[in-house]
């Protein structure tokens, strides 16, 4: 990409650099980091100083000083009438096929500011440590002497356990174990899509899914959603007009909004699957984090692929997910997986198998703690940022908040100077007037973070 827009660069800067020091130096270090990683490719044309200054809510002098410092270090070249470009031979460590600053994994690559509002992960449940510690030497011997260690589809006993958990007609051959839900989405994208295929997603949607589909060269279309889930009527119009290859939804718990799809929308969506030729991917990663009991299953279908995860409910460090689909679909995706990965850790899969015996207890524990944390966060927002608004989530570990008077991307840059890392809504494919705030941080951390954001707002006024 030759020209980097102001909006793109502002999003890429989120989570880069250091939170201390003069503004021009911090901006310079952030840009240098993007150049050195190859995310700003050689020859890329950067935004004009004035436009970038407005987007970042800093003075034009700050941007000029940062550009000049990067020119001195040999990373930028500036010519009157031609603008500011990354030098063709600028030092960088990786090449980039796209603007990596928007990637879902980017907040995990580097150190974060003192208060991280970017990551909406749940703390580990105590049962994870208990189950992991319960494995004995005999258990390990059982794994190592009865298995060669390579299972493309996953540990047979875990696949059987997940099939029983689903019940009905689900069989072990319908299950493919993956290293988390993100790998599951990558496999579905690689196995089902070709460059140019049309993919329909909700607006907004999970940013990791956007990454996975973008890497296949697919053309994305969006469908609006409300408190009951995606607009099924709007989806049907797109199905007729676009003939998409794949539709991606999150019916039991939506990231980032926390919406749970209504029973009526689920029935109507299922009927569309019977009437039109497309693959429906239902990401159920947040199913265990609903704040109230709900039945949100879409059932089974030859063209329905369900993605599940242990990481959201039990612990992010337990990188175990799965795909449920027709046996021929599972077999095809297992072949795709074998190109780069011969299977997930058998030890982790054995821990996951045992954790399924505690699944309902884990759901009950989350259902107790999440509403408490939600009340804490919303109380802090009402006290310190009363102009921010939201709808109560019904699932998940975050709050989707609407900002009243500026873009969320500008807010993310502003509050980073106060030691708070905030994700703009644009990275979720949404209008840039929203941000996502995690629930499950310690109350003192939530309070400090919200107070810093409020302080930043007062200072800018």
Explain this structure:
This protein is α/β, with parallel strands linked by helices and 461 residues long. The chain folds into 3 domains: 6-102, Arc Repressor Mutant, subunit A, CATH 1.10.10; 116-124 and 361-460, Aspartate Aminotransferase, domain 1 (Alpha-Beta Complex), CATH 3.90.1150; 135-359, Aspartate Aminotransferase, domain 2, CATH 3.40.640.10. The protein is built from 16 helices and 17 strands. An 8-stranded mixed beta sheet has the order 5-12-11-10-9-6-7-8, sandwiched between helices. A 4-stranded antiparallel beta sheet has the order 13-14-17-16, with helices on one face. A hairpin with a 2-residue loop joins β7 (219-226) and β8 (229-230). α2 packs across α4, α7 (156-166) runs parallel beside α13 and α8 (181-192) runs parallel beside α9 (207-214). The chain is globular and about 65 Å long. 47% of the residues are buried.
